[in-house]
Design a protein that fits this description.
Elements lengths: L3 H37 L2 H5 L9 E3 L6 E3 L1 H13 L1 E17 L2 E14 L4 E15 L2 E10 L2 E2 L4 E2 L2
Parallel strand pairs: 1-6
Antiparallel strand pairs: 1-2, 3-4, 4-5, 5-6, 7-8
């Protein structure tokens, strides 16, 4: 017969794996909600995926390049969509997620297509790294870093 403490230790890794699996599924669902909101051009729904206070930090590839706080980032989305004709479509691939307790991070490739206000095609692929926090039982993006590879010979983005 095992001591009670030994029994708890034997179950602990299984419990941790199940929790991590659930958390990963919840973060994948968060990214899916983001995709649906983006494809609809719904800024309110996009912002529901991010922490709602001044602790949000986003590093983007477009000027202003750094946004601190949910209000600043909301304005960035408003500006972004004001330059788009119709709606854009985003696809997220290669999503990898790591979770440890109430924090996690993910990385993905995101491809956006559509048309700008001048009728020019938009076709961009970026790399995105997200830092997640579980707040009141809900996963939210707390840190986002969007980047593109750079050709070091020319100093220009390698799109």
């Amino acid at each position: 017969m095992l001591p009670i403490g030994a029994f708890v230790l034997m179950l602990s890794p299984l419990t941790t794996m199940a929790a991590t699996s659930n958390d990963e599924a919840e973060i994948r669902a968060l990214e899916e909600k983001f995709t649906v909101a983006f494809n609809a051009g719904d800024i309110d729904a996009i912002m529901k995926n991010y922490v709602q206070d001044e602790s949000l930090v986003v590093f983007d590839v477009v000027p202003r390049k750094e946004y601190r706080g949910a209000d600043a980032y909301r304005k960035d989305w408003q500006d972004f969509f004001s330059h788009i004709k119709g709606t854009l479509k985003i696809t997220i691939t290669d999503l990898g997620i790591t979770v440890d307790g109430n924090v996690g991070f993910g990385h993905s490739i995101q491809h956006v297509v559509g048309t700008d206000m001048q009728g020019h095609p938009v076709d961009r692929t970026v790399r995105v790294t997200d830092g997640y926090r579980k707040i009141d039982g809900r996963w939210l993006i707390a840190l986002e870093h969007v980047s593109v590879p750079v050709d070091l010979k020319t100093g220009k983005a390698s799109l």
